[in-house]
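Methods — Computational structure assignment.
A single polypeptide chain was analysed. Its primary sequence is given first, followed by the predicted tertiary structure written as structure tokens.
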Amino acid sequence: TVLGGSTMVPMMKFVLSGSGTVNTITLMRTGPGVAADFASSGVYLLDETGARLTTGRTVNSTSQEVNFTGLNLAVSGTKTLTVAASISTSQVAGNRNAFQLASADKISGSVAASGTFPIKGNEFTMGGSDIGTATIASSTLPANPKVGEAGAKLASFKITNNASADDLLVTKVTLRYAGAVSRANLSNFSV
């Protein structure tokens, strides 16, 4: 059972094998659920490491499809992809949803897709309640760290659990680079 507001829920994994470039993958939502069970722009493709390969896509409420276009994804050997989804907070309790790759023509690029279709992920039941939430707030910025300074504090933030009845588990933090310093000069970050 998946609660409303859950993010990056791994819904399906599949393996691409061969050599070439994949430009488009079209998946279909299946099961006795609805597209609105998923957050708008809340479906992603992830690579083997869990890194996002795409921006969030929306399940089309008519076709039930999710289109990942402009991928330019190089495959040499095998590549495992994960479909991850964020669940709407207006999900319908008891609805069941899965994603599937319906046929070989739902993959396009310079590769010839083949396999046993449809390739379907597990079906997930929508829960009747929402997950707890957290608030992330920035704190005072450090004063002028110097290039080459060891242990320099570059940013500060606080995560507050808004749900007193639920524990909070943070499994991943993504920081965004901005500024004039070359990325080559940035390394060895710790949180």
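Note: The two ends are 31 Å apart (CA to CA).
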